[in-house]
Structure formats: structure tokens, C-alpha cells
Write a structure and sequence with these properties.
266 residues; mainly alpha; 10 helices; globular
Length: 266
């Protein structure tokens, strides 16, 4: 792993730990989000300073940064900024009022899945007005931006915002049914749960293998009272690891075998 990758991975890990801590500690949602936005902004400044000072070993590393790594952080900033606005304008009222509000917010989202010309979109200085640029591009520091890294971050963030709004809608629909089952909280890491969910999905054990990953994640989130949000990017962080890509699953297997061996001895 080169130095830029190492720095990015360590910085992202610290950021996610900080965000998780703020989500747990803060008792006021808007104050919580304000603190998170400040933390993400500081993180971006640190990454920018490092990238401008260190650079990239080659074009492939530069593309990877502007296509995957930087958007993963910027998407968090866009997401929390959007959630702040949504929650700040949340109306007072009952189920119908909230459902109307969240449905209106959902209708504003435009989620797309575009394909990219990497050499044109994710290398600095290669902007082209024919590439349908966001006006945001012309207002940014081009030493730390490409023509489309913000667009990728926006797509990621929109997906997260949609999940948030759908979760809020589901809470208005649950009503008294929430007490029908025991209340369980996932107290392991989000990375561990993401690893488990993707393993189950890969095995095709839901709906004869026809279930998409997102509804599976939603069921786990609802059942175990956890918000995985950027689960897809957590999975992307697991993929390139040379060792321990299935650390949690390996630990599960070892723990179960020890339990079985212990019971056999009795």
C-alpha cells in the first residue's frame, strides 16, 4: 500500500470513529450534525493538504482517489448537510403531516447511475464543457478537484439521504408494533455487520437469491437498531485488503467451533 492510500485509510477510519462518537454522545440532533459537519470539513482540509504536498505515484492512483476516496468523504459532508436542512424544517404534527413532508423530500431526490470516462473525469485539469459539468466545478480549487468527483459524491449522498428519508417514513408507519418483538441492539462494529450481510447476500439465502442488498440492509438496521448508512463504501474498504478481508466471519467460525468443542467435552 502506498503512502497516500495509507494516509487516506487511516484518516477515514479516524473520521468514522469520530462521527460514531458524536452520534452516540450528542443529545440534540441539530447540534450533533453541526459537530459532525465541522469534523468532516476538518478531515477534508487535512486530506487536501496531504494530497497537494505528496501527490500521486501515477495516474491510476489519482483516478482512484478522485473516483472513490475523496467522494466517500465529500458524500458524508453532503449527506449531513442535507439531513441538517431536512431536520431543521421538520414540521410539528402527527403521522400524516410527517409522511407528507418526508415524501416531498424524497421526490426532490434524483438518483442516477452513470458510467464514467475515468481519464477525462477523474484526472485534474481535464475539464471539458461538453462533459455536462456542475456549476460547482467552476467554484472549486482545481488542484483538489476533477470534473466529476463531486458528481460521484452527490450520487452517493443522494442514496444515503433516500435511505434516511425512507427510514423516517418507516418509523411513522410502525406505531405500536415496535413493542411486538424484543428490542435488540447491534453492539459490534458496523464493519462487522456489513461483512455479515454481504456474506449472507452472496450466499443467496434470501428470496432464493433474488433479494437486493439494500432491503436486506434495511431489515438488519430495523431489527438491530443500527444505521449502516454508507454500508456500500464500508464494503469497498474491505475489498482491497490483502489480509483479514473476512475478519469477523473468521472470528465467528472460530468462536462457534470453540463453543461446540466445549459443549462436547461436557
Amino acid at each position: 500500500m502506498d503512502e497516500t492510500n495509507k494516509f487516506y485509510n487511516e484518516t477515514l477510519k479516524r473520521l468514522e470513529t469520530a462521527i460514531n462518537g458524536l452520534e452516540i454522545e450528542a443529545d440534540n440532533l441539530l447540534h450533533q450534525i453541526e459537530a459532525i459537519i465541522s469534523t468532516i470539513t476538518q478531515c477534508l482540509s487535512e486530506v487536501k493538504e496531504y494530497v497537494l504536498k505528496t501527490g500521486f505515484r501515477d495516474e491510476e492512483a489519482e483516478i482512484c482517489f478522485f473516483k472513490h476516496q475523496k467522494p466517500a468523504i465529500v458524500a458524508k459532508l453532503i449527506y449531513y448537510n442535507s439531513i441538517y436542512k431536512i431536520e431543521a424544517k421538520r414540521p410539528y404534527g402527527g403521522k400524516e403531516v410527517l409522511e407528507e413532508y418526508f415524501n416531498k423530500e424524497l421526490s426532490k431526490l434524483k438518483i442516477s447511475n452513470s458510467t464514467y470516462l475515468d481519464h477525462a473525469y477523474f484526472v485534474r485539469g481535464n475539464h471539458n464543457v461538453q462533459l455536462n459539468l456542475d456549476t460547482f466545478y467552476f467554484e472549486t480549487d482545481h488542484s483538489f478537484s476533477t470534473s466529476h468527483d463531486y458528481k460521484v459524491a452527490k450520487i452517493i449522498a443522494n442514496d444515503l439521504i433516500q435511505d434516511y428519508l425512507e427510514y423516517q417514513l418507516s418509523k411513522t408507519a410502525v406505531g405500536d408494533k415496535s413493542n411486538a418483538l424484543p428490542n435488540l441492539h447491534w453492539t459490534g462494529s458496523k464493519t462487522a455487520l456489513t461483512e455479515l450481510i454481504y456474506a449472507l447476500h452472496s450466499q443467496g439465502i434470501f428470496n432464493n437469491g433474488n433479494a437486493d442488498i439494500k432491503p436486506i440492509v434495511k431489515v438488519f438496521e430495523s431489527t438491530f437498531n443500527i444505521d449502516l448508512r454508507d454500508f456500500y463504501h464500508t464494503f469497498l474498504e474491505l475489498k482491497p485488503r490483502k489480509i483479514n478481508r473476512t475478519k469477523f466471519l473468521d472470528t465467528l467460525k472460530e468462536t462457534l467451533i470453540r463453543k461446540m468443542d466445549g459443549q462436547d467435552e461436557k
